[in-house]
Automatic annotation (TrEMBL):
InterPro entries membership: NDUFAF7, NDUFAF7_sf, SAM-dependent_MTases_sf
Region (Disordered): 80-100
Source lineage: Bacteria, Bacillati, Actinomycetota, Actinomycetes, Micrococcales
PANTHER family membership: PROTEIN ARGININE METHYLTRANSFERASE NDUFAF7, MITOCHONDRIAL
GO BP annotation list: methylation
Keywords assigned by UniProt, alphabetized: Methyltransferase, Transferase
Pfam families, alphabetized: Methyltransf_28 (PF02636)
Domain of life: Bacteria
Any GO MF annotation of the entry: methyltransferase activity
UniProt name for this protein: SAM-dependent methyltransferase
């Protein structure tokens, strides 16, 4: 096959009907673990639900994988209802306020065995969102590791100092340099990721900015949060971050549908009210990773063991060299913002 721009090959490799990685390879959980899975997912769900400063009538999980985080959110809402003695969240009473819906969005049909409290909407994939996802009010929208798999233009600085698009042969991953960047991508690079040293790589974040802007435009009122691998202008990676995962391991990025392809997100170019590390965001929401006092082991052993488990889970989410190094971009849309 002839080489094509990385952005095109990347999109085909992940989302092509019947053969894309996310369609045919069993979902992300079959290949790697994210913070949305297992005990960390449950703790993350509770923290995310504490983020909005407004009533939440619907939670939307964009790039939901096979619904792992959405399930944790539904379970957390149900637990809150049980603790408060209400049925507000998932089982509305005849005279109570509207329930809180949980909606998961991804590129496959509804997974078998998904918690029935989670609604499912199929998405086209990449930057494209389903048309029914619009006019959202009193919403919490979570895009957990979505933008890093929105394919973007990959460029490299040539021997003359000009940024040129990187082409790739889909079957082998062999790369070559193509034409100079077109005007819009070049403008983005000069504004957000200037590079002049031959061999430097640039991952043009314009497609991610546009995908995020599209998602924001669908919210009439609420809070959106993108949680992702990312960087800011102070520390752009000179060699880029494009990589691949398969069967739980890093592998060579080849856009043939056999592996997940991902690149970190320029989080500070998104339309957001704040960008901070996950560690900072979760600490602000009360997570500390602090172990319970040892004396509790004698007076209430079960509570002590539960406290140790909670502390261990929180510590994983706060780890600067792990999940804590993710970044959150938070955007708040007030109803009076809508024109």
């Amino acid at each position: 096959m002839d080489p094509v721009p990385w952005r095109e090959a990347w999109h085909e490799a992940l989302y092509a009907a019947g053969r894309g990685f996310y369609v045919a390879r069993g979902g992300p959980a079959a290949h790697f673990t994210t913070a949305a899975h297992g005990p960390t997912g449950a703790a993350l769900a509770r923290a995310l639900l504490a983020l909005p400063d407004h009533p939440v009538r619907v939670v939307v999980d964009v790039g939901a994988g096979r619904g792992e985080l959405a399930t944790h959110i539904a379970q957390a809402l149900a637990a809150d209802d049980a603790a408060s003695g209400t049925r507000r969240s998932l089982e509305p009473g005849p005279d109570g306020p509207p329930r809180t819906r949980v909606v998961a969005v991804d590129v496959v049909e509804r997974p078998e065995g998904l918690d029935p409290r989670v609604e499912w909407v199929r998405s086209p994939g990449g930057p494209d969102l389903p048309p029914q996802l619009t006019g959202l009010r009193d919403v919490l929208v979570i895009a957990h590791e979505w933008l890093d798999v929105v394919p973007c233009t990959v460029a490299e600085v040539d021997a003359t100092g000009a940024a040129r698009e990187v082409l790739v042969e889909p079957g082998t991953g062999a790369e070559s340099l193509g034409a100079p960047l077109h005007a819009q991508d070049l403008q983005w690079a000069e504004s957000h990721w200037p590079a002049a040293t031959p061999g430097d790589r640039i991952e043009i974040g314009r497609s991610r900015d546009e995908a995020w802007a599209d998602l924001v435009s669908r919210v009439d009122s609420g809070t959106l949060v993108a949680v992702d691998y990312g960087h800011t202008a102070a520390a752009r990676p000179s060699r880029g971050t494009l990589t691949a995962y398969a069967h739980g391991r890093l592998t060579t990025p080849v856009p043939d549908g056999s592996c997940d392809l991902t690149a970190h997100v320029a989080m500070d170019t998104l339309d957001a009210d704040e960008v901070r590390t996950q560690r900072e965001a979760l600490q602000a929401l009360g997570l500390s990773g602090t172990t319970p006092p040892h004396a509790l082991a004698s007076t209430d052993p079960l509570a002590y063991l539960a406290g140790l488990e909670r502390a261990s889970t929180e510590a994983r989410l706060l780890d600067r060299d792990g999940f804590g190094g993710f970044r959150w971009a938070v955007k708040r849309v007030r109803s009076h913002d809508v024109t």
